[in-house]
Amino acid sequence: MDEALIILFGSRAKGTARESSDFDVAVLKDHPIDYFGSEFGDMLRFMSEKFHMPYDRIDLVDLFDASPLLWHEAATHGKLLQGIEGQFVGFKIRAWKRFMGAQKLYRMRFTHLAEKMKTFT
């Protein structure tokens, strides 16, 4: 876990959480998280112990192959829990580039859906 960037995002990072809110935590490693082996459970236990989060309220996402939109959310509103600050800055730059690169696709998708919706009215 030492080499991973661990980022708190969502309502807890924004300061808008309620007592019952979960903990949205993004992890970026140099490989995808193995959800079916012991790695996923080990990560949840580590975060629960180190950051004092209830184990069953951690919503863990793997940024390795996540969407540009999720990268953007974690970069824009996220708080670095573990990792090197310089790597977090690098992640924010990559997230912005990925998000901007995806804008054309998002616009095309929106236009396509808007045209489809017209056929239903």
UniProtKB/TrEMBL annotation:
Top-level taxonomic group: Bacteria
InterPro entries: NT_sf, Polbeta, TA_antitoxin_MntA
Residue ranges annotated for the Polymerase beta nucleotidyltransferase domain, each copy included: 5-81
Protein's name in the database: Polymerase beta nucleotidyltransferase domain-containing protein
